[in-house]
Write a structure and sequence with these properties.
Elements: E1 4-9, H1 17-31, E2 37-42, E3 57-61, H2 78-83, E4 86-91, H3 94-99, H4 104-116, E5 120-125, H5 133-144, H6 150-153, E6 157-160, H7 174-192, H8 194-197, E7 202-205, H9 210-218, E8 224-227, H10 234-245
Parallel strand pairs: 1-2, 1-8, 2-3, 3-4, 4-5, 5-6, 6-7, 7-8
Helix pairs in contact: 1-10, 4-5, 5-7, 9-10
Bound molecules: 2-phosphoglycolic acid.
2-phosphoglycolic acid binds at residues 9, 161, 166-167, 205-208, 226-230.
């Protein structure tokens, strides 16, 4: 059986390397016993070198640049992430789309570079308040996945994160999450055929907590969760892990 993915997106937290190590160690310890869950922790870049990934707690970046090397002040390459022990990288998070002006075209370039360097990209898609889910997600997927070959698609994870649910406490209902999961599967099937589409994990993110975590796996056909706020609390994060491990 495939493991359920549990991704922690620490965003721009915590504020010191020491706190990051304490949190990472606590989380690593807590998730060791979760046999059915693959935990991936995505800290700020500056902490990556001081965190040691393990079989139970893998590392991911929160972003990546689209070129391999050169004169790109402030950017971090996919190879640098891989060198620091990352196996995964979040690409196209809505906060980067919103505050850093990332377009679907930029996100496509980042995805391709991540794949080239053998990182597994976690591509975030989702609509804002007032937008139609299908319209937005279809565009984000079609442009985001342009020129991604059939041989590569099963290395990508799609995270459905409705923007209105992120950090608001206003989590998506499991019915709506199910509709989104089915819709994403449909688009992937159109692009890659059913066999390959089935291999792409679709996960949910947006105000996930221990009390709603299991619903998305049981009722919404999600293959995992992307957790922001609650991933900064080692105990709450462990509870989320237990809730999905024991299904
Ligand atoms: P949240 O964030 O869990 O705090 O809503 C999720 C995310 O942005 O990935």
């Amino acid at each position: 059986m495939k493991k359920i993915l549990l991704v922690a997106n620490w965003k721009m937290n915590p504020q010191s390397a020491k706190e990051a190590r304490v949190l990472f160690d606590a989380v690593s310890d807590n998730v060791k016993k979760l046999k059915n869950v693959e935990t991936i922790i995505c800290p700020p870049f500056c902490y990556l070198s001081s965190l040691k990934p393990s079989k139970s707690a893998k590392l991911g970046g929160q972003d990546v640049f689209w070129e391999l090397q050169g004169a790109y002040t402030g950017e971090i390459s996919a190879r640098m992430l891989a060198d620091l022990g990352c196996e995964y990288v979040i690409v196209g998070h809505s906060e980067r789309r919103q505050y850093l002006g990332e377009t679907d075209e930029i996100i496509n370039l980042k995805l391709k570079m991540a794949l080239k360097c053998d990182l597994k990209p976690i591509l975030c898609v989702g609509e804002q308040t007032g937008q139609e889910m299908g319209e937005v997600v279809e565009r984000q997927l079609k442009i985001g996945l342009t020129d991604i070959a059939k041989a590569q698609i099963s290395n990508i994870i799609i995270a459905y994160e409705p923007v209105w649910a992120i950090g608001t406490g206003n989590a998506c209902s499991s019915d709506n999450a199910l509709s989104a999961a089915l819709f994403i599967k449909k688009i992937l099937t159109n692009l890659y055929g059913r066999f390959l589409a089935e291999k792409v994990p679709i996960i949910y993110g947006g105000s996930v907590e221990a009390r709603n975590a299991a619903d998305y796996i049981k009722e919404s056909q999600m293959a995992g969760l992307l957790v922001g706020g609650a991933s900064l609390d080692a105990e709450e994060f462990a509870k989320i892990g237990q809730a999905i491990n024991n299904l």
